[in-house]
């Protein structure tokens, strides 16, 4: 190994500008595996003739799908910002009563998969739904249509705004409030101070949360399908099922292109990050007469996102006894299958993420940022596109790779690897490099120093990242539907099949179990990452 020279960067201390060859090769192999499906999708698209490709892309339905997807993402993202930023401001900067309770309550919708929320809202507010039946004695025969764009935006907003809320809240807690005090002494109103001081400070965090919300809205398959709204993900899945391989491939490439446009727009909107150390002053804004409206706002959002689906699931649970389809009867095997593949994905993601995160955090080389950014390709690519690409890859390579659990776990790892890499890299940056160096001076090898010194110190981030991968894997729908082996059923596939067959009661138990397991995963994330609710 080359002699290590310590340098310092804005991100933290680097042990060496020359990384060990083995670490570099391991990181490169992980990065290559992540980009493989996208490259294979491009290869598959080249098999389509140019004339046929242009004909498919020029169809009116293709343009309609593009417009629908763009409108859905734009409106959902704007709605998430409109909900997330005020909620973050209320729970951090004001004297909102019971603010700790509201902090947790408005974060919990992140645990509920959007497709379960969509099931519940269709059951509650759809034609002949529970809400309309309650209003029927009052003479109300029809309520506004839930299907289409409005329903998709409503559901996606309720279950993706926490991305904006959490990032904006973290930024508000870390910013220097003495700057706001200074603006107030210059006779600026609170609104002027917010526009001139607070908003520029939290803009990068809001942009980051909005990026996650927009990528989720673009890649979501379940909600648009349930709301009968034709977007890329729904049409790709339908075309693939109808043996329209060429159309599905070209639409997938279009969807990937839109994804990278969103990433580019986010980088432009975010601008230069402006950070400041937290000041001692705590400028708490008194709500006064607005306390009750503020609590009503928080209660309305949390109630719609949490109470409605839970109430509907309990209703379905009772209905399940009245209409039973034995082929759709719940089996605990589905829980075991879901937990098994999610645990495997979490473990593999952590192992694969270790060399990438360590190389990025501890060695300043030209390849380290490239490998780290390559791991985010899988997260940026929608699950239905990733699943389709791996179907093409697996079917070309053949058995025993396709169909198999190995390919399914591989898809999960590619999809959610950035969650493990991000958590691990942040943990490595918090470890003082002098500690493993001291262990090496006492006779430990580099591997021994990593095992006995560095690894125990990054354990909270490791478990937090694994829990996050586990949580998102448990909820992943399109990749599971496309890649699961025949006869392998999980909670999400059983929920989807039961709802598609019209037996809502059979979807209640697996949905409640999924929410319970997801809640436990969120609890692990909160305890390991030290989520502050004060």
Automatic annotation (TrEMBL):
The protein depicted here goes by the name Iron(III) transport system permease protein
Biological process terms from the Gene Ontology for this record are: transmembrane transport
Bilayer topology reads:
Multi-pass membrane protein
What PANTHER family would the database entry show? FE(3+)-TRANSPORT SYSTEM PERMEASE PROTEIN FBPB 2, INNER MEMBRANE ABC TRANSPORTER PERMEASE PROTEIN YDCV
Is Aminoacyl-tRNA synthetase there in the keyword field?
Answer: no
* Signal sequence segment: none
Q: Where in the cell is it found?
A: Cell inner membrane; Cell membrane
Say which family it is in.
Belongs to the binding-protein-dependent transport system permease family.
Cellular component per GO, a single term: plasma membrane
Q: Where are the transmembrane segments?
A: 21-42, 65-89, 101-126, 146-166, 205-227, 247-265, 296-319, 339-361, 373-393, 399-417, 453-474, 503-526
Q: Which UniProt keyword terms apply here?
A: Cell inner membrane, Cell membrane, Membrane, Transmembrane, Transmembrane helix, Transport
Q: Which organism is it from?
A: Halogeometricum limi
Q: Which Pfam families match?
A: BPD_transp_1
Kindly give the Gene3D superfamilies that the UniProt entry links to this protein: MetI-like
> Taxonomically, which superkingdom?
Archaea
Can you give the residue ranges of the ABC transmembrane type-1 domain?
A: 66-266, 335-525
């Amino acid at each position: 190994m080359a002699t290590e020279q310590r340098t310092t960067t804005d991100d933290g201390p680097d042990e060496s500008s020359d990384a060990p060859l083995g670490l570099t090769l391991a990181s490169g192999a992980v990065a290559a595996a992540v980009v493989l499906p996208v490259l294979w999708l491009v290869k598959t698209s080249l098999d389509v003739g140019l004339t046929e490709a242009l004909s498919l892309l020029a169809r009116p339905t293709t343009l309609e799908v593009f417009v629908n997807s763009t409108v859905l993402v734009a409106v959902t993202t704007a709605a998430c910002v409109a909900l997330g930023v005020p909620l973050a401001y209320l729970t951090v900067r004001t004297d909102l009563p019971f603010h700790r309770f509201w902090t947790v309550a408005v974060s919990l919708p992140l645990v509920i998969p959007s497709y379960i929320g969509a099931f519940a809202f269709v059951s509650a507010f759809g034609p002949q739904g529970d809400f309309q039946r309650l209003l029927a004695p009052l003479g109300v025969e029809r309520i506004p249509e839930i299907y289409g764009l409005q329903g998709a935006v409503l559901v996606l907003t309720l279950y993706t705004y926490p991305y904006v809320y959490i990032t904006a809240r973290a930024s508000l807690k870390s910013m220097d409030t003495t700057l706001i005090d200074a603006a107030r002494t210059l006779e600026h109103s609170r609104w002027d101070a917010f526009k001139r001081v607070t908003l520029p400070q939290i803009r990068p965090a809001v942009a980051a949360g909005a990026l996650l919300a927009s990528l989720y809205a673009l890649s979501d398959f379940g909600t648009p399908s349930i709301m009968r709204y034709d977007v890329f993900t729904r049409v790709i899945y339908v075309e693939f099922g109808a043996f329209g391989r060429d159309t599905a491939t070209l639409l997938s490439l279009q969807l990937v292109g839109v994804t990278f446009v969103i990433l580019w727009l986010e980088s432009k909107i975010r601008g230069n990050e402006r950070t400041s150390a937290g000041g001692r002053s705590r400028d708490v804004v008194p709500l006064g007469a607005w306390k009750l409206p503020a609590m009503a706002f928080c209660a309305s959002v949390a109630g719609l996102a949490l109470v409605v689906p839970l109430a509907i699931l309990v209703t379905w649970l009772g209905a399940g006894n009245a209409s039973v389809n034995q082929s759709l009867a719940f089996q605990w095997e589905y829980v075991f299958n879901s937990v098994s593949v999610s645990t495997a994905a979490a473990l593999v993601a952590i192992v694969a993420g270790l060399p990438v995160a360590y190389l990025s955090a501890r060695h300043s080389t030209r390849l380290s940022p490239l490998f780290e950014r390559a791991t985010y390709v899988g997260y940026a690519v929608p699950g239905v596109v990733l699943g389709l690409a791996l179907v093409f890859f697996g079917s070309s390579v053949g058995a025993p790779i396709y169909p198999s659990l190995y390919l399914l776990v591989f898809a999960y790892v590619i999809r959610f690897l950035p969650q493990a890499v991000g958590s691990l890299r942040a943990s490595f940056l918090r470890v003082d490099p002098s500690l493993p160096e001291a262990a090496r001076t006492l006779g430990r090898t580099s591997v021994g120093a990593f095992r006995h010194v560095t690894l125990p110190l990054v354990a909270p981030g490791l478990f937090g990242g694994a829990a996050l991968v586990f949580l998102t894997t448990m909820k992943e729908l399109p990749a599971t539907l496309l890649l699961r082996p025949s006869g392998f059923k999980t909670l999400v596939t059983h929920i989807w099949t039961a709802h598609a067959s019209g037996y809502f009661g059979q979807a209640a138990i697996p949905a409640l179990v999924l929410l319970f397991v997801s809640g436990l995963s969120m609890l692990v994330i909160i305890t390991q990452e030290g989520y502050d609710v004060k």
